[in-house]
Amino acid sequence: MDAARMHATACAYYRSPSEDTLNAALEEALPLCALIARRFSGRGVEYEDLYQVAAMACVSALKKFDETKGLRFTTFVTPTITGTLRNYLRDKAGMLHTPRGMKEQSAQLAAAREKFLNEHHREATPNELSQMLGWDISQVLMVLSAQEANTVSSLDQTDDEGLSTGERIPFIEQGFEKTERKQDLLKALSALSDAEKQLIFLRYQKRLSQREIAQQMGLSQMQVSRMERRALALLRKEIEGDA
């Protein structure tokens, strides 16, 4: 997955729209479509269906892309695909209205996850959540699944520096794509300090802003910014070195 080539072929289609340039641009973007579709899998819809929806959203984005706006194509297309998949899942699952009981359980589970994270600086496993809440493991998994189906983070939100999450995380996801195993990224993460691991988790899993992370970790926003740059540089080196 090459963001530069994706952008170049999208620009080529913008300058000279034809079936050939559209197909060339789509072919370059399909790995990104597959990557995003995989992130939505396991929610009651077949991956192949998600992939097709992602590909169609990509075609729509290519037809709307305007090179003169100054946006990288990956920055433009990622939220389009993500939003389309989110809406597709909601329509497919018929979960526009969550039952009150599920909302209450979801709030309890979210509070337990947050408490565990603050105490242990990592995400709780379903078994650990089951013990904390006194729930059966199947109940925990059901509520987690409902949360995932209803709370998909958008990649087009900007952070304190005016950068979108989609602009910051591509190389991490390229690591997943190149190595085909998350274990390789986990190995790269082991090179970070505990504080850096916590920052990466809060930033890219919890989608917190640098300001929110600074408050949670007891640091200044400048310290968080510097730590994030160091951590991302190290992760990039580890991932690209193993690829």
Could you describe the 3D structure shown?
The two termini are 12 Å apart. The chain has helices spanning 3-15, 19-39, 47-64, 73-93, 100-120, 126-133, 137-150, 165-168, 170-179, 182-189, 194-205, 210-217, 221-242. By secondary structure, it is mostly helical.
Question: What would you call the structural class?
Answer: mainly alpha
Q: What is the averaged pLDDT score?
A: 76
- The parts where pLDDT drops under 50 for at least 5 residues are 151-181
**Total helical segments:** 13
Overall 3D geometry?
A: globular
* Measured distance between first and last alpha carbons: 12 Å
Give Rg in angstroms.
19 Å
Give the quaternary arrangement of the chains.
Answer: single chain
Residue share in β-strands: under 5%
Please summarize the sheet with the most strands.
none
| Helicity range | over 70%
Number of strands: 0
Helix-strand pattern, N to C?
A: HHHHHHHHHHHHH
Helix and strand arrangement:
Elements: H1 3-15, H2 19-39, H3 47-64, H4 73-93, H5 100-120, H6 126-133, H7 137-150, H8 165-168, H9 170-179, H10 182-189, H11 194-205, H12 210-217, H13 221-242
Helix pairs in contact: 1-2, 2-3, 2-4, 3-4, 5-7, 6-7, 9-13, 10-13, 11-13, 12-13
